[in-house]
Amino acid sequence: QVQLxxxxxxxxxxxxxxxxxxxxxxxxxxxxxMGWYRQAPGKQRELVAHITSGGSTVYxxxxxxxxxISRDNAxxxxxxxxxxxxxxxxxxxxxxxxxxxxxxxxxSWGQGTQVTVSS
Length: 119
Description:
Blueprint: E1 2-7, E2 10-12, E3 18-26, E4 28-39, E5 46-52, E6 57-59, E7 67-72, E8 77-82, E9 91-101, E10 104-109, E11 113-117
Parallel strand pairs: 2-11
Antiparallel strand pairs: 1-3, 3-8, 4-5, 4-9, 5-6, 7-8, 9-10, 9-11
């Protein structure tokens, strides 16, 4: 079993910043990918940013230059620094982690954290 605990969501004004964090715990042998997704009301869940164990990153076009994903391999944590936030960034943000337990692969989702950008 893998547990993901997210933190850092909230209400922020346009142009403001927030930092999301996600910590993975359990019988984890290794993690090969960590990422953040988001889902706005009435829309499908979409990838925001993704980072591999080697540090390679992928960002959605809509957040490039504003969001930065980072990870701490020793602590099994991933963070998303969100700057210059826009109202269209409003969504529930989900952490996603993929890796290996001692008996096979796993993919886990966090419970989601609300980010609201509004004046």
